[in-house]
Amino acid sequence: MPRKTITGETSTIFRATPSVSQSAKELYEPQMVSIGPYHHNSDMTRYMEVHKHQFLHEFLDRNAEIGVEVYVQQIRGLADRASQFYSEKINFSNNVFVQMLLLDGCFILEFILKLDEKKHDILFRAGWDPLTILSDLLLLENQIPFFILEELHSIVKGDNGNNTPEISVDLKSLIINNLFITYLHDGIHPSRVNGPWEKPHHLLNLYHELSKPFRETNTNSYRSTVETKINYNLPQVIPSASQLHEYRVKLRKKISPLDIFHVTFRKPVMKIPQLVIDSTRRTLLMNLLAFEKCVAESERRWTGLMILMNCIIKSKADLEILQQEGVVLNLFASDDEAIKFVGQLSERLTIDFTDHYYTDIFGAINRHCETRVARYKARFFHQFFNNPWAVISFSSSLMAIVLSTVQTLISVFTYQNRFRRH
CB 395: neighbour CB atoms within 10 A? Predict the structure, then answer.
């Protein structure tokens, strides 16, 4: 799969690599509603086409003064530009492609407007789960260009002169408040909501942009937080949470982080913003990884964060440590599901481990763990506290030493008192 850059009209809507999609199709293919050409009219989502047409009519009814031919004409004028956003050739006729863009775009906008109007009862009566639909809308393979949504929203608002009082909220606020803030707020940088933002290429790209920290000046912004000499020719990984515990490195939840990527290490404490994991976020995270892998100039912040989680979570014991400290909030049905998710991460992180978002922090932690004192501490705790019998033996020996010392002191004090009397 060729990599492209997010510049000009270059392709930014890709398919996941064949090896990825075959091993976990449900993470990359829509489960309820298809958007765009890659999964158009698929068996899994075909039953939703009737509902999509219903949403189309309800969207058009929001401004009855504008006929459907106006929408078709405007989208037809953008069809050639839209086709350039896909990494694969679109094997649709122009008419079918235009109809698909119109239908899918109107469905997305009407879905968001219904959420904004709190008309959840309509969705639930139809047996729909808004989270499942949202998850489908943020799949890399399930996108249409963002400017299609902008054009449709502009038409229905009446920006061409046919004004309607029904839609007064701008598109950015509708999407952010009703999709991201409501359901996936933990990944959004707060200052991005009302601040400047680059025009996205699609909804997944929008979420990626909104998560970008304002203070970031380069692709590895945290390199300034630690001062250490690092051999960038070696893989930059760190021990698991259990192993870090043996090295006496304390893992703590970062209170009031600047953003979800704001990881810091000040000897011997590593602070990490809380990461919430559930089925919806699992799908989103895997598609963010795929997006960053496909787009060459994308800042791979999410990939770096997942490298970090993949390093420190290797077992249930690691997960328990992170949950106790509040670093991970596991909303899966069981810890096994969370461990399975981390295993899926390790299969997808096929990137350069010698230089990533947290390279310098990893280097500082490794330098700390390589010191003689830290190694002795780790060896001591590993030998005496990993085995319950060893703990009992050590405790018994320590108690014997304490009792012997106390007995000796009592004897000394008794002797001194007798000596003073005489």
Answer: 11
